[in-house]
Write the structure tokens for this entry.
Amino acid sequence: MVHSSLKRLAVKLSKICNDLRLLSSGPRAGLNEINLA
């Protein structure tokens, strides 16, 4: 039970990180909607 919860959390965090990477990429390479400090 704990293992499946941790796995789901890891998958969600991975998706969030990928979305942030896409949104914060350069003006020619991505959407550039947010800036990560």
User: Anything to note?
Assistant: The helical segments are 2-23. The CA atoms of residues 12 and 18 lie 10 Å apart. The first helix runs from residue 2 to 23. The chain is about 60% helix and 0% strand.
